[in-house]
Structure formats: C-alpha cells, structure tokens
Amino acid sequence: MSRTAPFLHRPSARVARPLLVGAALLGSVALAIPTSADAAPHDGVTTAALLSIEDVRAAGLDGDSATLSRTGDAQLDDGGHNDENCLSDKTIRAVTGAKSYPDRGTGQGYADGTWSSTQDKEVYVTEAVAQGATAKDTDRYVATLTSLVTRVRECQEDPAEGFRHAPVRHVDAGGGATADYYATVYADGSRDGGGVAVVRDGTRFGIVSLSSGRDSSASTLKRLATWAAQRLR
Fold this sequence. Notes:
Blueprint: E1 25-26, E2 29-30, H1 53-58, E3 65-69, H2 92-95, E4 110-116, E5 124-131, H3 135-150, E6 164-165, E7 169-174, E8 177-185, E9 195-201, E10 204-210, H4 219-231
Antiparallel strand pairs: 1-2, 3-4, 4-5, 5-10, 6-8, 7-8, 8-9, 9-10
C-alpha cells in the first residue's frame, strides 16, 4: 500500500506550471503555458481555469506530471474507475451538446487536464471544464453531470458487486463558487478517499475526479474540489 504524502500548504497564488508536462496540445499545435490573462471571463474558459500541479501536491499527492488540452474531448473519468461507470464514454463537449474538436462547439471554451505521478501509479486526477453561454445553459450542463454521477450504479453490469457514491457533500468555495463532491464507496463499504466532484462558478463549470485520496474521510477530494471551484473564476 502506498503511503499518503504529507499535506503541504496550498500556495496563496498560482505559480508557473511545472516543466514536466506530458502533452498539452490543441489539435496538433503545442499549447503555450497560460498566463493570467487567459483567465479573463470574456475570453472564455482556458487551461488557466484548471487545477495546477501545485494544487495536486498540496492536497498530499505526489503528482509530477500533467497533460493539458483545450479541445474538451478528453473522456470524463469517475474516481479512476474506467471499467464500469457513466462517465468514461462522455466528454465535456458532449455534455454541452457540441461535436468534437475542431468544431466550434456551444460552450465558450473547453479545457481538460490529467495529473499523475512517475513515482506512484495510484496518483491520478482528471478535470474537465467549460463555460456556458448563459446561466440557464450552465444549469442544464451541471444537472447533466450530476445525473451521470448519482446514477453511476445503473451503468454497472453487476451493481451489487460494483461501487457507488456516498451522499453529496457541498462546499462553498467563496465568491459564489461551489463544489459538490461524492466519495467512492466500494461494494464492501470501504472507501479510499477517491471520488468525483462537480464544480461551478457563474457560467463556468466542470468535473474533477480522483482515483484514490488514501483517506477514508475524503479530505483530499474535498481540497481538490474546493480549489477546482476557485480556479474557475
């Protein structure tokens, strides 16, 4: 069993992204490291609205590798369980009713990220975010994501032997940003701190998943969900 890395204090402000970036591509064009200007609401959501590698480390995970994209075509993941869930065949574009990149899409920008570790294969965090054109549109997208998460057992071949989610926990991330996170519960009732969260700030929204937080209390998941919500602005 891998040990849980000690908790690090979260940086007070976003710092430069790490040099070790697996693949950050927009189609076939390399994606430049985002600047603070990328986060401007009128520009639409970009990778600046995603978690940083520092957030992953501060949550107690030994993350050292990141893959970023602005296509919105990365498959959504549910707590690292790709075999039986409602999310693995979905993308953030599909949630908004858009076609795959390079189609313009209905959202005002898309971004996906994956954070992992070259030292610890159990470290795996994914995130996908987008921006709706209106609050009403965003309400619908968030409801779709929530439905996919809460109905996860319906997608499993043998629900009795599969996993489910614990009741939702709500977090006020400040400034109007919110996060609803759902811890993964296995068939035997055990938990490893993994799970999924739906985050929102205004018309920006997204989903974050964690394969294992190494803690039954889901405190790691809660940290990531809170910071992901704060990063949306």
